[in-house]
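Each field is set out underneath.
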Amino acid sequence: MRNLLNFIIRYSTWFVFTFYVLISVMLLVLGNRYQQSVYLTSANVISGGLYNGASQVTGYFHLKSINESLQASNAQLQNEVLNLKSQLAQYKVLLSDTLAPLPSKDRYDYVSAAVINNNTRLPKNFFTIDRGSLDGVERGMGVVDQNGVVGIVNVTGPHMARVISLLNETQHFSVKLKDTSFVGSLNWKGEDASIAYVEEIPRHVEYQVGDTIVTSGYSTTFPEGIPVGTILNRVRSQDDSFFTFKVRLMPDFRSLSTVRVIKDIHKAEIDSLSNYDILKKD
């Protein structure tokens, strides 16, 4: 206490000077409109700068939640597009058969997930996502990102799942030329992470460099029409009856971050019909 009193007494002159300066400034500002306007303008500039800085800091920490919200909205929109395409295809069939039943709605759904581990340098590449069986993820479900096909789920745990990357020499994907019925098989050859090859395309097919390769829809893994890549050029095929295309893949596998797992509500029914003869023998 004594030290505090000694400090105040020692610097009392400065305290009194500061007090009078503050009083003078207050009287000057309150008694003159011009000084009031200058003060308010300066205060608004300073406070605005402080608020803007605080807003940028808090906004940075909210980026994750904003990104998750955008991904959920994007997944919902893609889900609606896929279901509308599916319903449109069924309505086209109805035009030729008015006695057919009405098409079912919402065949496809998405589960958004984050990639927590990824590899692109091995002949057989996999990546891990932070969604599992408790989130509805099952073995055999297709996985896409915002650009196109990236893989197929092959192992699931309660909270995570492992995905066979498209960059896996053992995997083949059923694809076709966009807006045609010509189907082929896409396979990665273990070289460039951005290049794959489409084989078994009939030689009479008309194509151009830059044409889009999409999923064929001939399985429950991927709906029809999901982008895969674009044709770079034709390469020599082992079978002279078919073309082989060199394709630039649309997804950037080195920077996978957020993906979506595709759920087909008809998968169990279609698989059971496909395996009917096998199950009957058992």
In short: The first strand starts at residue 108 and ends at 118.
